[in-house]
């Protein structure tokens, strides 16, 4: 059956199949050699036993992993309420920057200033300024909570990046579609809502997925202002046990979450490229 199938292929197709097979063999061989070199050479280094006890202690990992999972729920909670707010605020900022009405020019200035400021300031600095600055005003509970103001810092920072991604999606919709919709009698608001935005949002879904992955990781920055999420909990265990293995456990949990999301984002990007061909 295989020979009959091969016989039905053109010379070009047989050549491409042979090239793919050759590339797969080379890739597999090189991967095996690199992994074997790491597995063999790293344990031969002088300080490996000390590093293994400090970072890869199985007993410590088993002891701390359940508590790290509990602390990760805080990360998920902060992510869950921050992501929708980021999407909404980012879209509003993108629309403000895209407005063409002279009367709404102040909105364009505000949108530009917003993205320039919060894209220009490092995330950790924004977390510090808002997370320590606003509670310093002496607000009553619960308005002095680091969960609220830390989340606000993430929302403001990520909204600036998300707004630019949305704006690139809006710009990717050809102006002829806007003109055609206007010629049919639609208003500018209807054109934006019914013609431009559906296409723009669909075009930027893969890029926004990558922003969600980054947000999930940056939630750990809030540990610097108080919330006991997974990174802070790992630090507590490190101090109690004098061992860095809890940080490795935290990294494993993040990888369990982010790798499937990353692969899904890659799948969306590949499908989008295929649709454009």
UniProtKB/TrEMBL annotation:
It is a multi-pass membrane protein. One of its GO terms (cellular component) is ATP-binding cassette (ABC) transporter complex. GO terms for molecular function: transmembrane transporter activity. It is found in: Cell inner membrane; Cell membrane. CDD domains: TM_PBP2. Its main location: membrane. The keyword Zinc does not apply. The chain crosses the membrane at residues 23-44, 74-96, 117-135, 147-166, 240-261. Belongs to the binding-protein-dependent transport system permease family. HisMQ subfamily. NCBIfam families: HEQRo_perm_3TM (TIGR01726). This is ABC transporter permease.
């Amino acid at each position: 059956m295989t020979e009959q199938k091969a016989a039905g292929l053109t010379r070009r197709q047989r050549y491409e199949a042979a090239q793919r097979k050759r590339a797969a063999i080379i890739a597999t061989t090189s991967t095996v050699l690199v992994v074997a070199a790491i597995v063999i050479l790293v344990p031969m280094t002088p300080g490996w036993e000390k590093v293994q006890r400090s970072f890869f202690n199985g007993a410590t990992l088993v002891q701390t992993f359940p508590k790290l999972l509990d602390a990760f729920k805080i990360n998920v909670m902060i992510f869950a309420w921050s992501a929708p707010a980021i999407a909404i605020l980012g879209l509003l900022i993108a629309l403000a920057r895209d407005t063409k009405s002279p009367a709404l020019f102040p909105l364009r200035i505000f949108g530009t200033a917003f993205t320039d400021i919060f894209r220009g300031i490092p995330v950790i600095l924004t977390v510090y300024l808002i997370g320590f600055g606003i509670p310093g005003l002496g607000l009553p509970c619960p308005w002095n909570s680091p969960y609220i103001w830390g989340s606000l810092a993430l929302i403001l920072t990520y909204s600036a990046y998300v707004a630019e991604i949305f704006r690139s999606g809006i710009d990717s919709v050809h102006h002829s579609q806007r003109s055609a919709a206007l010629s049919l009698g639609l208003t500018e608001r209807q054109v934006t809502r019914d013609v431009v935005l559906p296409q723009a949002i669909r075009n930027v879904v893969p890029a926004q997925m990558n922003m969600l992955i980054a947000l999930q990781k940056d939630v750990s920055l809030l540990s610097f202002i108080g919330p006991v999420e997974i990174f802070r909990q790992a630090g507590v265990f490190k101090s109690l046990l004098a061992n860095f293995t809890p940080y490795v456990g935290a990294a494993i949990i993040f990888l369990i979450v982010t790798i499937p999301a990353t692969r899904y984002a890659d799948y969306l990007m590949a499908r989008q490229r295929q649709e454009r061909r």
